[in-house]
Predict the structure.
Amino acid sequence: MKIELYLSKRGSSPIEDFITDLPKGDQARFADVFEGIEKYGLDCPRVQFKPLRGKLWEIKFNAPGGGFRIAYVLVEGQTMIWLHVFKKTTQKTPLNDLDLAEKRMKEVLGL
């Protein structure tokens, strides 16, 4: 499966910025998740995939620094676009994170 990171209209990647600011152990876990999904697709071990809203899904996994979530959308069959990343601190997905991911999804899909 191919993975792409969301790019803002200015060409910056908030996903890459978020990951770069993490401690090295968490960065390594993100790299493992990225490589695992590229290799195994939705059968990637040690991560969970969960629907959020409509075409918006999330990847759930743990890293040394805690639980993390990646909101994504699938496009053109085997392309996964990571839209938003956040550290999970509550039981439910915070609405501001969900709304931001949905806004980016609509932008990517041209809705």
About this structure: The chain has one domain: 2-109. Residues 2-109 form a domain with the YaeB-like fold fold (CATH 3.30.2310.20). The mean pLDDT is 94.
